[in-house]
Amino acid sequence: MNTAFLNSWQSRVLAVLRIVTAYLFMAHGTAKLFGMPHVAMFDGLQLMSLVGLAGVLEVGGGALLLIGLFTRPVAFVLCGFMAVAYFMAHANQGNALLPMLNGGELAVLYCFVFLYFVFAGAGAWSVDAARRRR
């Protein structure tokens, strides 16, 4: 395998991972705050509630990640947010160490992808990278 070729694409693929992750994460927030896509359990959501705050973090943090602005600190906050979400909403349903059984797989995956962004940064196609080049 030609690792030089893979290494030359590493920063761009990191950016793609960040963009796709942010887009998917934002969809959770837009469903909560704006009803798009519509998820019935979020009908009548109060903005000043834990779920409302989650929606704000998902939309705001997701938007910053999408453009790659302040990626490391935003990813740090979102990593912690997803860890708290896992333990508040999933681990207390029993089987705390088995996210597949308590419905927490997505929370755990987001948590660790965000943790990766804390250490890896935003990648090539980001506002952070553009600011570094100046």
UniProtKB/TrEMBL annotation:
Membrane topology per record: Multi-pass membrane protein
InterPro entries (alphabetical): DoxX, DoxX-like_oxidoreductase
UniProt keywords, alphabetically: Cell membrane, Membrane, Transmembrane, Transmembrane helix
Lineage per the UniProt record: Bacteria, Pseudomonadati, Pseudomonadota, Gammaproteobacteria, Acidiferrobacterales
GO cellular component: plasma membrane
Subcellular location: Cell membrane
Protein species of origin: Sulfuricaulis limicola
Protein name (record): DoxX family protein
Pfam families linked: DoxX
Major place of residence: membrane
Keyword ATP-binding included in the entry's annotation: no
Family the entry assigns: Belongs to the DoxX family.
Transmembrane segments: 12-35, 47-67, 74-91, 107-127
